[in-house]
Structure formats: structure tokens, C-alpha cells
Design goal:
By secondary structure, this protein is of the alpha+beta class. The protein has two domains: 40 residues, no CATH class; 212 residues, Thrombin, subunit H. A six-stranded antiparallel barrel has the order 1-2-3-6-5-4. Strands 7-8-9-12-11-10 form a six-stranded antiparallel barrel. A hairpin with a 2-residue loop joins strand 1 and strand 2. Helix 2 packs across helix 3. The longest helix has 15 residues. It is elongated and about 190 Å long.
Amino acid sequence: MSLSSLNIRRFMPFAVAITVVATFACGSDIDLEGTIDVRVLQALAAQPTVTPQPTSTPQPVPTPLTVPTPLPTPTPAPTVTPQPTATLAPAPTPPSTATPQPTSTPAPTATPQEPFPPTSTPMAVPVDLYSEVRLSVVKIRNGSTTGSGWAIEDGWIITNEHVIAGSGTVSVEVPNTNGGVEILTGTVRGFDKKRDLAAIQVAHSAPILPRRIIEAEDAGTAIIQLGYSVSSTGGFPVVHSGVVTTVIRHLGTVLVTSSQRADEGNDTAGVGVVIFDADADPGDSGGPVLDLQGNVVGITFGAVVFTSGGKRVIGQQQATGVESIDRVWTQLKNGTITTSLGSD
């Protein structure tokens, strides 16, 4: 194989040019191999140079912001078209069933000696009533003993026999409207130990108190009790309120008072006694027990403090009833002195 054939085979894309070069080289001693290389380089240089297209500077790709994928908007539930509410026919009201009341435990029956009612809650005392009746309630002094009384008639005061016991005259303090007192001397005309009553004659100016007879069926009547106990001041007697608990015919022969005085041997059977639960203290003896209309229903003489068996008793203040007062009042004014006058 010739060298020319080899070059053509090797440089097939440039065969024409090589042929030309070989033609001009005839007759001279040419370095064919170097000439070919030169010619090849020249031929390559003669090729039009492709102007390189400017490479566009790549724009920096902005880093995509991470946008939170929006939550899908919940498809609103279709609004339910309200169905017209059917008007309900009113249900018939069931008949009311009576609430069964608890069966009360029967209270034990008390031994029928003397009644023992509980002390009631004190009620408010009408101020106008007190202001009116206090002027009729007097204080009685018999030496060192102090008691009460009230105007039963013009010129007469009634009190307990045990308040004036042993004296023919006593000091009577009559209140006036300004809180002062008028001190008078009263004469004891008659007394009755059975009913614990005494009549005092004195020229007083105190208003007269009306009287009212009450019976057992009047239990529960609201009352007030006035008297000059140790807490009284000047012409203002102490007042207590309560109710009548019962009215009895006294069955015993001994009256035990709050001062532990016992009239032993005195026949008290048959005396009408008003038992009430308003407080009564030493010094209130002889004071009136009045209803809320201002009527005297009894005259306080004491309280049961112990039963015959020695048990403590509360709520049993006692007053001689008006019926028993009226039965002997005329005789007392006439100066009768007795321990068992008449019979009720």
C-alpha cells in the first residue's frame, strides 16, 4: 500500500485537498509526510470558524419558598331545610298525687298530774299596749319585800296575800306618764290565802284595768305579764310575753312558787288557775296577766318549779283566774281575812 493511499484513507474528509497538494509536489523532493500535515493544518484553518454563540449566563434559579399546602376548604354541609315542627297536642295534665305525709311518731302520753307544756318562743309585745297598761301596774313594798299589784277599782289595788303577809299597811308606788312614781301608803283590808289574794285601799290615780274570764278552751291565747321584778326601773314594770297553756281547777294542796315558798296546809283545791309560759320572776307576784286587748285574765302568784317527784319544771307560771278573783273580791274589800273562803 502506497503512502498516498494511506493518507487518503486516513483523511477521507480532505481527499481533494490532498490530491492537489500531491500534484504540485511532483518533480521535487518533498517531505510528503510533513507537507501533508501542514496542508492538513492549513485546510483545517481554511474551514470557516463557527462563531461560538455566547453562552447565556444561567440565571440563578430562585430557591422556591416553601408555601404550606393550604388545607382544603371543607365543603360546607348542605343546609338542611327545616321541616315544619308539628304542633303537639297538649298532653292531659295527670291528676296530682297527694304527697304522702310522714307518719308522725305518737308522743308518749304524759302522766295526768300537772300539765308540762314547753316554753313558747317569745313574741313581740305591742308597744302601745305596754305604754297604756304599765300606768295601772304598781310596786308594793312591805319592809324588805317587794311585789306588784294593779288597779282593780278606783281607790283599790289588788295583789297577792304573800306580798303583804304580816302587815296592815304597805308602800304603794304608782307610775306616772313621765317615768316617775307617786309614793302612797295603802291599808290592807282583807286577804285570802287559799287564792293568794289581798285587797289594799289607797287613793290612787292609776287607770282601771278591765277583766276577762277565760276557760280551758282559751288555751293558746297570747298574753303579756307585767311586774316589778329585780330588773325593773322606776315606774316601768318588766314585761314578758307568751301564751296561755291551759286553765285548770287547782288539784293540789301545796303551791310551790319560784321563790320556793310552800303554803302547806292551805286548801287550794278548786281554785281556778291560769297556767302560762311567759317568764315570771321574784317581784312579779301580784302583777296582772293580760290578753292583747288589755284585759286582765289572771294575777300572777308563782310558778311550779318541781314536780311532786322532785323533777325540774319549766314553762308553768301560774296566776289566779279572774273567775276566782271575782268570787271573793267584795268580801276582801269588806275586810274579811280567811284562808278558806267559800268554795269554787
